[in-house]
Amino acid sequence: MEILVTGGAGFIGSSLVYYHLTQGDTVHVIDDLSTGSLENLKEVLQHPKLKCHFVELGNFKNLSKLLQSIDLVYHFAAMVGVLKVVKDPIKVLDINIQETLFLLDAMRSIQSKARLIMASTSEVYGEKNIRILSEEHDARITSTLSQRKNYALSKLVDEAYCLSFFVTHDIQVTILRIFNVIGRNQTGAYGMVIPRFIHAALKNCPLIVYGSGQQKRSFCDIRDFISILAKIIHEPKTVGCILNIGHDEEVSIYDVARKIISFSNSQSKIKRISYMEAYGEEFDDFQTRRPDLTRLKSLIQFTYQWNLDSSLKDMIEYFRDIQS
Ligand SMILES: NC(=O)c1ccc[n+]([C@@H]2O[C@H](COP(=O)([O-])OP(=O)(O)OC[C@H]3O[C@@H](n4cnc5c(N)ncnc54)[C@H](O)[C@@H]3O)[C@@H](O)[C@H]2O)c1
C-alpha cells in the first residue's frame, strides 16, 4: 500500500510511520515540525520507502498529484496541546479547520477512493456530567470565554466537513474520537500530563497537578492504539463512522502522579495549582473522560496488551535512558 500520514513526525503519526514501513508499505509524511520532530523518525529517516515533506500541509504544492497514488491517508496534523491552544486560540481554528478542508478538497478533486482516517478528539463531547461517553451522545461546546474550547470546536468542524465529503463526494472517511494516548515519544512540552509528570519525577521536582486532581482520565498505550487502528483500516464497515478509540480503564490524575512517583522511586511531592495559575484562564474541567467502546467492539475484535501500570513503567525507563 501507499500511505500518507499528515503529522507523521508527531507522537502518534511517527508510530504509524514505523508500523506501515514494517508492513512493507511506502509512506509519505507531511509535517511542519511545529510540535513533531525529526527525532521521532530518526530510525527510519533513511528508509528507502519513506518520503518526507517537511512543510505546512496548507503549503504543500501538488497535493492532488501525490494523492493519486495513495491508498490510505491518516490526517493527524493539527495544532494540539492545551498550552499552545490557549496561547494562540485563533491559529488553532485556522490551522485545524483550513488544512482539513484543503486535504478533503484535494481528495475530492481527483475523486480519491483512498481510505481517510481523521484524528478527532474526545474533547468534542464537552460533557462534564456523563461518566462514560458514547458516540450517541451529543457533542457540546461551551459558550464561555474559555479559549481552550477552540481545539474541540475545530475538531468538531473537521468532523462535519469529513462527514459531508463522505455523503456528497464519497470520500471514504472514518473519524476517530481519540481518548488519551500515551507512550515513549510523547512530549510534555505542550501540556501532556504523563510525560510532564515523569520528567518532574526523574528530577525529584514537584509533580504539578492542575485543579483538584480528582478528575479522571483513561490512557491507552500507543502500541495498543496502533494495533486497534491496524484493524480499523481493514474493516470496510468503519467507513462513514465516528468511533471512540482508547482504553476504558479510568484513573484520577492524582493517582497517576502517585503511581509515577512510586514506580520511579522519586523523592518528588505532589503540588496542586489552579487552572488559572496553569493556563491563565479558569475552566470547568471534565471530571471524567472514559470512552464507551461498544461501537468499536461491534466492528472489530481486539485485546489490550498494555495496562496503565505497564505503560508507565515502560515510559519511565525510556525517559530515564534519554535523560542520562
Ligand atoms: N495524543 C493524544 O492523546 C490525542 C488525543 C486526542 C486527539 N489526538 C489527535 O491526534 C493527532 C496527533 O496528535 P499527537 O498527540 O501525535 O500530537 P503531535 O503534536 O505529536 O502531532 C501533531 C503533528 O502535526 C504536525 N503539524 C501541526 N500542524 C501542522 C501543519 N499545519 N502542517 C503539517 N504538520 C503539522 C506537528 O508538527 C506534529 O508532528 C492530532 O490531530 C490530535 O488532535 C491526540
Keywords:
single chain, 324 residues, alpha/beta, Rossmann fold, 7-stranded parallel beta sheet, 4-stranded mixed beta sheet, 11 helices, 38% helix, binds nicotinamide-adenine-dinucleotide
Brief sketch in words of this structure:
By secondary structure, this protein is α/β, with parallel strands linked by helices.
Rough outline: globular
Q: First CA to last CA: what distance?
A: 39 Å
- Mean pLDDT across all residues, rounded? 94
> How do the strands of the widest beta sheet line up side by side?
3-2-1-4-5-7-12
Bound molecules: nicotinamide-adenine-dinucleotide
Question: How would you characterize this protein structure?
Answer:
By secondary structure, the protein is α/β, with parallel strands linked by helices. It has a domain at 2-182 and 219-246: 3-Layer(aba) Sandwich (Rossmann fold). 38% of the residues lie in helices and 19% in strands. The protein contains eleven helices and 15 strands. The strands form four sheets. The chain has a seven-stranded parallel beta sheet with strand order 3-2-1-4-5-7-12, with helices on both faces. It is globular. The mean pLDDT is 94. The protein binds nicotinamide-adenine-dinucleotide. The site of nicotinamide-adenine-dinucleotide has 28 residues, from α1, α4 and β5.
